[in-house]
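Sanity check

After download, print the first record. It should look like this:
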Amino acid sequence: IERFRSLISKGINSLFIVIPSTNTPSGTNEQTSDICDLETILLGESISIPVYFLPETQQMNDLYKSIESRRDSTKDSALAVLYDMITADGYQLSVTTGKYGQRTDSVLYNIVGKLIGHGIEERLPKILIVAHYDALGIANGLIQGADSNASGVLILLKLIRLFSKLYAKQTTRAKYNLHFLFAPGGKLNYQG
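Expected structure tokens:
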């Protein structure tokens, strides 16, 4: 995170973040945690440069090694820079993008259910049990999927099953209405 802030303050033009592959030993838990922390910063702050997320591939690793070895062996003389410009022995990035902006067409769906307690439904207190079922990432490779809250969803499903057995009989119903909510937008303050 500090390195990210340092690079931004030095005036870089863009940032490439390589997302470690889960199939390689380079994708450690510490790296995953660092990327999640960076993702939180990127979601919460205004960044004035483009940030690109790239999946780790052999081709990407080869390119990185090539750039690193070139950087280590490059002379800092103006003649070397001029020679590189003339021979085009370097790297240049060209990106063509469409329009971008805030998405306004996203639809979030709540999934709700309830069990009515013993008594007059409208007068009974309500208990709301909630779990979020979605995952959010600023890049597809950062979405944690089931790691996001699968356990919360599973527990809520189990609670629904257990309480529905209790509420099936008049004699075992509590004097509460139970409402169950699977909410989207968990990472967006449950805006669903």
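If your output differs, re-run the checksum step. Summary of this record's structure: Helices lie at 2-9, 29-44, 58-73, 78-87, 146-167.
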